[in-house]
Amino acid sequence: MIRIKTFSLSLNRCKYLILKLLKTLFIFFALFMVKAVSAENEENKKIESSNHSIIYADKEYVQEIYQLMKDVDDIFNFFGTDYWVDGGTLLGCVRHQGFIKWDDDLDVCVEKKNKNDLKKILLALESLDYDVRMISTTIFNVGHRKYKERRKVNPWSCPCIDIQMMEENKGKIFELNFRLKHPQVYFLREDLFPLQELPFGPLNLPCPHSPNRYLEALYGSDWLTKAHVWNHHITEKVVIELGSEEKKGAMPYKPLNDNFILPKK
Question: Could you give the angle at the alpha carbon of 67 between the alpha carbons of 138 and 208, nearest 5°?
Fold first, then answer.
């Protein structure tokens, strides 16, 4: 009986050790798979510079950004309302000929005198299932309605566009709230008009006639050779040297849709 009991205890001990070993192996395997999947997802989405890691927008995000820009451009053109691209979108047109890989939104401007047209444009965007949010009396943020709940917390947490109404004072054109924080950043009418079209991936977008002075005021004198990386998901600005890879714009991976069907006259 003693031998049988001893054997039984040894057998139970072996089972316990085997199960513990299997559990440990499973945990290591799971951690390995998580790390492998994470590395695969981040492949081609990061650049390393000066010990900083910058995340590139993934291909679905980029696709939605371009579709949103196309829809906005189509609607502005339908109403015959002048607008121009601003901020990172303007920089993308001039320096990258497309969406900057680490950017996260779009920026366009319209003169305040066209605010009645803008109301119609925003209604047209809502008809395409976009969610329109008033950030201030002069800024409207537009993103797809499928992100509506997320946008209630943070409008810039998904592909979106800021549409800014611009005021003019003594030949200087600016968005009032931004002007109060950055008085040196404004458009001169002679630099702005007549607008020119520049490539933005597969699109051609209206840009200031002479954008260099504005881009220097906004991004610094080295804006052509260095990127002052900032977006709504980066809390600390990072400055990187622009290599050939960083200068390439992110492109849509499939054709864009003609979502805005021109109303019959």
Answer: 50
Residue type, 31: L
28 by Cβ neighbours in 10 Å (0-12 / 13-18 / 19+) ranks as exposed
Sign of the dihedral through C-alpha 174, 177, 179, 182:
negative
Ordered per-residue pLDDT tens for the chain, 265 residues:
444 444 454 666 666 677 767 677 666 665 555 444 344 444 334 444 343 567 899 999 999 999 999 999 999 999 999 999 999 999 999 999 999 999 999 999 999 999 999 999 999 999 999 999 999 999 999 999 999 898 988 888 899 999 999 999 999 999 988 888 889 999 999 999 999 999 999 999 999 999 999 999 999 999 999 987 766 666 667 788 999 999 999 999 999 999 998 765 4
Question: What CA dihedral angle connects 47, 91, 64 and 248, to 10 degrees?
Answer: -40
**Which is it for strands 106-111 and 160-169: parallel, antiparallel or unpaired?**
parallel
Which amino acid, 244?
S
Residue showing tokens 């900083």: 52
225-233 contacts: CB < 8 A, separation 24 or more?
227/100, 227/102, 229/54, 229/102, 231/88, 231/102, 231/103, 231/104, 231/105, 232/104, 232/105, 232/154, 232/156, 232/157, 233/55, 233/104, 233/156
Residues near 169 by beta carbon (within 8 Å), at least 6 away in sequence: none
Report phi then psi at 153, rounded to 5: -85, -45
Which amino acid, residue 140? F
Global pTM value? 0.79
